Amino acid sequence: MVTPEALERWRHLIEPEMARCVTPMTWAEVLGLADTSLLYEDKASVMLVRGAEIAGDRVCTIVVAAGVLEEMWRIAALVERDARAAGFRRVLFLGRRGWTRIDPGYVERAIVAVKEL
């Protein structure tokens, strides 16, 4: 599990990313995930992941990924390895389509639509 201190080291990357993502979170909400999440780190990049159950299927969800793209792929490989070892059947993220263009292992399954009123 993640300590709030470990998250705080990455606040400069995590907080802005979470503020503009599909499902925005405040910093307090991110800190609230510490007990149920894992933190993956590289030199200038970070991923926060946690397990979830969706339609009866155990999935590893990437809550936030921030930093340098090249490092992200190294971190993603570790997340996938650990998720497989923990018995998860899938890795899930909500993000930009660029991920699916760069890594053919990730396929688009749904879209998120927003209508401004």
Molecular structure report:
The chain is an alpha+beta fold and 117 residues long. It has helices spanning 4-9, 11-20, 27-32, 69-85, 98-102, and strands at 37-41, 46-54, 57-66, 90-93. It has a 4-stranded mixed β-sheet. A hairpin with a 4-residue loop joins strand 1 and strand 2 (46-54). The longest helix is centred in the middle third of the chain and has 17 residues, at 69-85.
Distance between the termini: 40 Å
Q: Please bin the fraction of helical residues.
A: 25-40%
What integer value in Å does the Rg equal?
Answer: 14 Å
Poorly predicted segments: none
How many separate helices? 5
Give the strand tally.
Answer: 4
How much beta, percentage-wise?
15-25%
User: Which class best fits the helix and strand makeup?
Assistant: alpha+beta
Strand order, largest beta sheet: 1-2-3-4
The biggest beta sheet is recorded as: 4 strands, mixed
Q: H/E order of the elements? A: HHHEEEHEH
Q: Give the overall average pLDDT.
A: 88
What's the arrangement of secondary structure elements?
Elements: H1 4-9, H2 11-20, H3 27-32, E1 37-41, E2 46-54, E3 57-66, H4 69-85, E4 90-93, H5 98-102
Parallel strand pairs: 3-4
Antiparallel strand pairs: 1-2, 2-3
Could you write a compact summary of the structure shown?
The protein has 117 residues and is an alpha+beta fold. The mean pLDDT is 88. The chain has helices spanning 4-9, 11-20, 27-32, 69-85, 98-102, and strands at residues 37-41, 46-54, 57-66, 90-93.
Supply the key terms.
117 residues; alpha+beta; four-stranded mixed beta sheet; 5 helices; globular
